[in-house]
Specification:
With 657 residues, the protein is mainly β. A seven-stranded mixed sheet has the order 31-28-34-25-35-38-39. InterPro entries: Cu2_ascorb_mOase-like_C, Cu2_ascorb_mOase_N, Cu2_ascorb_mOase_N_sf, Cu2_monoox_C, DBH-like, DOH_DOMON, DOMON_domain, PHM/PNGase_F_dom_sf.
Length: 657
C-alpha cells in the first residue's frame, strides 16, 4: 500500500472510531470523490486507485486494519485513536465530557497538557503535547531526572509507540526490563501528538517504577520535535533541550463537588488588596478589614476561590480570612498585621495557599453567614514572600466568596491543629528527616464535643509547612491506636498547598486525640531553623474543615524549651527574646541560638535531639470562641510509637502483580 493510502487509512480510522454513522458516511463520500478524481488521472496511478478501493471496502465492512495495531516496546497493542475530534486548525479539542476528571497544564505556555482519571487500581493518562516528535512524562523523587520513572512515546508513520524507562542520570533513560505501561491510543496531527496510556497505581516493578499515592508527586515532562529512529541507543530519543520542566501535582486528589454557577441564587463577594505596593523585604503579613454583605437571613458560604493577580504568583504565598467576633469592635483600614489591632479576629473562616485552586463545600455543608452568631467583619491576611526584595510590585490579589440563601443541612467550621508558631520550635541542621510533633489531647477536645452533643465530621484539610518541610500528617488516635489520617502527605511540597477532601469523611469522637507531625530535611543547612512566619522559618499546621460547627478554634501545642535545651547542658534561661543562658556558668550570657548552632551536628546527632524533644512535656493551646484554656505540662512520651491502622487510607492498596 502506498504512503498516501496509508495516510488516508489512518485519517479514516480516526473518523470511524470516534464519529457517528453520519460522519462515517462523510468519509465514504470523500473517498468516492477521491476515487473519481484518481480515475480521471493517468493510468500510472492504477496502484493508488486500488488502494482507495481497498480502504473503501474495509470501511463498508466496519473494520480497520493498517494503522490499528499499535506496538509498544513491550509488545502491548491498542487502538490508534484520540481524546476527541481534531479541528482543522490543528488545535486539539477538549476531551469528551465526563471522561477525564482532572487536567493540568505542565508548562507555562500550555504546550503540554496532561489529563487523567483513576480508580482503586489504575490511573489513565492522556498527554496532549504541541509537537510531532516524541513526548516524555516522568515521576520523580525530587523534580530532577535521576531516579525517575519515565515514559516516552511518539507516533510515527501512523504507528504509536510507548516505552517504560528508568533515568539513572541526566542522559537518555534506559528501557525497563519490565514494560509496565499499557498504551491505549495514540495519534498526531499537524501540530500535536496525543498519547493515552494506563498503568497501575502500585506497580509490579517496585525497583524502577514509582508508586502513585495521594502524596504530592513531582512530575517531570519533556518533548522533542523529532521522532526517534530506534527505541534506544544513539538513534533513540534525542536530547530535549529547553523543552522540559517539572511540576508538583496531587494526582489522586478527589474531585471537589460541583457547583452550578449558573444558579441565580449563587452570589459572589470579592475581597482584594487595592493596588498595594509589596514591601521590599523577604516576609510581609498585610491585613485588610472588610465588612461582609449585610444579609436579611441566614446564608451559606459554599465556595472559596483565590484571586491572585497574574504575574504576582511568585510573591503571594498564602491568604487567610479571619472572622471577627460578633459584637466586637472591628479593625479598620489596611496595614501591616503587626500594627493592626485585630485581636478579636482570630478564628479562621477561609484559607488558601500557594499552588491551591480553592475549594467547594460538599452539598450538605456550608459556612454560616448572616445570623447574629456570624461575623459581620473579617480581616484578610496576605502573606507576601519577596526574598529577592523586588521593588515596584503592586498587588490586587484576594479571595472570592460564593454564597447562597439556599441553606444546607450542616454548618461548617475550621479547626487549626499543629505546632504553635514560636521560636521554641527548633529544627537542627544536617537532619535527613527530623520529625516535630504537636498534640491535641482529649482534655481539650472532649469539653467542646460534649457541649455539641455529637461527633464532628472532617471532610477536608489543608496541610501547611515551609521550605524545609517534606512531610505533614495528622493522626486520629482512638483507644491508643492510629485510627486514620486527617490529611497526610509524605512528599510535601511548599509550593503546592491544596485543600484536600477526605473520602470517606472522618468522625472525631469523645476520647479521640490528634497528633500532627511534620518531617523536615535540613541536610544542606549549617544553622538551626526556628518556628516563625517567614518562609525561611518553619510552621507545622493543618486546617481541618468539618461539620457540625462547635466552639473550638485552635488545638495546638509547643514543646517545653527548657526540656529541649537540657540536651546541651543548659539548666536556666532568662526572659529575653531571644533567650540567653543563665546556667551553667560556663555558658552564661550566650545567645541560645549561638549555643545550638555551635553544636557539632550530624544526621545521628539530629536523630538524638529529636528523640530528646519528643520525650519531654508539651503545652497545649486550647482556644475556643469563649477564650483560652492552656493545658500545661502534658507529657508526649506515651504517644510514640503507636500502632498504625491496618489499612492506611491515604495510600493505594492495589495488589495482584
Amino acid at each position: 500500500m502506498t504512503t498516501f493510502a496509508a495516510f488516508l487509512l489512518a485519517s479514516a480510522s480516526i473518523g470511524f472510531l470516534f464519529s457517528n454513522v453520519a460522519a462515517q458516511d462523510q468519509y465514504l463520500n470523500a473517498l468516492s470523490s477521491l476515487q473519481q478524481l484518481v480515475t480521471s488521472m493517468d493510468v500510472t496511478l492504477q496502484d493508488l486507485k486500488s488502494d482507495v478501493q481497498d480502504i473503501k471496502a474495509m470501511l463498508q465492512q466496519g473494520g480497520c486494519t493498517a494503522g490499528n495495531d499499535v506496538t509498544t516496546s513491550g509488545g502491548d497493542t491498542g487502538t490508534t485513536s484520540g481524546g476527541g475530534d481534531v479541528p482543522p486548525s490543528g488545535v486539539l479539542a477538549s476531551p469528551d465530557s465526563g471522561d477525564f476528571t482532572h487536567q493540568a497544564a505542565l508548562d507555562e505556555y500550555d504546550r503540554y497538557t496532561l489529563l487523567w482519571k483513576f480508580d482503586s487500581e489504575t490511573i489513565t493518562f492522556e498527554a496532549q503535547v504541541q509537537t510531532t516528535g516524541y513526548i516524555g512524562l516522568g515521576f520523580s523523587p525530587n523534580g530532577g531526572m535521576t531516579g525517575s520513572d519515565v515514559i516516552i512515546g511518539w507516533v510515527k508513520d501512523g504507528q504509536a509507540y510507548l516505552t517504560d524507562r528508568y533515568a539513572e542520570g541526566y542522559f537518555q533513560p534506559r528501557l525497563d526490563a519490565s514494560q509496565d505501561v499499557e498504551l491505549l491510543s495514540g495519534y498526531e496531527n499537524g501540530t500535536h501528538t496525543v498519547l493515552r496510556f494506563r498503568r497501575r497505581l502500585r506497580p509490579c516493578d517496585t525497583t524502577e517504577d514509582r508508586e502513585i499515592t495521594e502524596d504530592t508527586l513531582r512530575i517531570i515532562w519533556s518533548f522533542n520535535d523529532v521522532d526517534p529512529v530506534a527505541l534506544d541507543g544513539p538513534d533513540g530519543p534525542q536530547y530535549h533541550g529547553s523543552n522540559r520542566g517539572s511540576k508538583s501535582v496531587i494526582l489522586l486528589q478527589k474531585s471537589p463537588p460541583n457547583l452550578d454557577l449558573q444558579d441565580g441564587n449563587v452570589i459572589t463577594f470579592d475581597m482584594t488588596n487595592q493596588n498595594l505596593r509589596v514591601p521590599t523585604r523577604e516576609t510581609t503579613y498585610w491585613c485588610t478589614s472588610f465588612q461582609l454583605p449585610v444579609l436579611d437571613k441566614k446564608h451559606h458560604l459554599v465556595k472559596v476561590e483565590p484571586l491572585v493577580q497574574p504575574g504576582n504568583e511568585g510573591v503571594v504565598h498564602h491568604i487567610l480570612i479571619y472572622q471577627c467576633s460578633p459584637g466586637s469592635t472591628p479593625p479598620t483600614g489596611s496595614q501591616e498585621c503587626a500594627s493592626m489591632p485585630w485581636g478579636n479576629c482570630k478564628a479562621i473562616m477561609a484559607a488558601w495557599a500557594v499552588g491551591g485552586t480553592g475549594y467547594t463545600y460538599p452539598e450538605h455543608v456550608g459556612l454560616s453567614m448572616g445570623t447574629a452568631d456570624d461575623p459581620s467583619y473579617v480581616v484578610m491576611q496576605t502573606h507576601y514572600d519577596n526574598p529577592q526584595r523586588l521593588n515596584n510590585v503592586y498587588d490586587n490579589s484576594g479571595i472570592r466568596f460564593y454564597y447562597t440563601p439556599d441553606v444546607r443541612q450542616y454548618d461548617a467550621g475550621i479547626l487549626e491543629v499543629g505546632i504553635q508558631v514560636n521560636q521554641d520550635h527548633a529544627i537542627p541542621p544536617q537532619a535527613d528527616t527530623y520529625d516535630s510533633a504537636a498534640y491535641c489531647y482529649k482534655e481539650c477536645l472532649d469539653p467542646y464535643l460534649q457541649q455539641l452533643g455529637e461527633p464532628i465530621n472532617v471532610f477536608a484539610s489543608m496541610l501547611h509547612a515551609h521550605n524545609v518541610g517534606v512531610g505533614v500528617r495528622t493522626k486520629l488516635v482512638r483507644n491508643g491506636v492510629v485510627e486514620s489520617y486527617l490529611g497526610r502527605d509524605d512528599n510535601y511540597d511548599f509550593d503546592l498547598q491544596e485543600t484536600r477532601f477526605l473520602y470517606p469523611e472522618v468522625a472525631i469522637k469523645e476520647g479521640d486525640e490528634l497528633i500532627t507531625e511534620c518531617s523536615y530535611r535540613t541536610t544542606n543547612l549549617n544553622t538551626f531553623t526556628f518556628g516563625g512566619q517567614a518562609s525561611s522559618e518553619e510552621m507545622c499546621q493543618n486546617y481541618l474543615q468539618y461539620y457540625p460547627r462547635f466552639k473550638l478554634e485552635h488545638c495546638d501545642s509547643l514543646p517545653y524549651i527548657l526540656h529541649g535545651v537540657e540536651f546541651f547542658g543548659i539548666t536556666q534561661l532568662d526572659n529575653r527574646n531571644p533567650p540567653h543562658v543563665v546556667k551553667p556558668d560556663s555558658m552564661a550570657g550566650m545567645n541560645i541560638g549561638a549555643v545550638l548552632n555551635q553544636h557539632p551536628w550530624s544526621v545521628e546527632e539530629a536523630e538524638r535531639f529529636e528523640q530528646h524533644v519528643r520525650s519531654g512535656p508539651n503545652v497545649v493551646r486550647c482556644k475556643g470562641s469563649t477564650g483560652f484554656n492552656n493545658l500545661a505540662g502534658i507529657n508526649g512520651q506515651i504517644w510514640d510509637p503507636l500502632p498504625e491502622p491496618t489499612v492506611v487510607v491515604s495510600n493505594s492498596t492495589v495488589s495482584g502483580c
